[in-house]
Amino acid sequence: MERKNFYDHDTYEALLGRIARLMLDAAPGWGRMNAAQMCAHCAEVAEVANGKALVGTPWYIRLMGRLIKKMVLSDKPYPRSAKTHPQYEIGAGVSFEEQKARLLEVLAAMHSAGRARAGQSRHPIFGAMTADEQGWATYKHLDHHLTQFQV
Description:
By secondary structure, the protein is an all-alpha fold. 55% of the residues lie in helices and 3% in strands.
């Protein structure tokens, strides 16, 4: 997997283009989320990366934080249909247009804050992350889910 970085302008613009092509009725290639839930899920993950509190983390996840960080930052793609943190599980009934707009807003704020802000953040499970680590992790997560919906 090529190591792209969310903070690189061309990579960011390409992600925005892929999100723009995402449609309400897009069927996932795997998993149970619909397109609205995926947008909400990705927005929530980005908000936590930007400092939003992460609540309800099981003790064993906190214990395995370094191992999970290593997997997140590896070049190996995420496994399909992997379990996620309880806060990132999105129930049915969310609005596609609202969640897509939320995702775009969160990503715009994250991108405009840039690498300097990213290097100052501390993830609640992974701990300190460099700007390059956060940029790669953000890209890899978004790419995983956009690929899930064939965009």
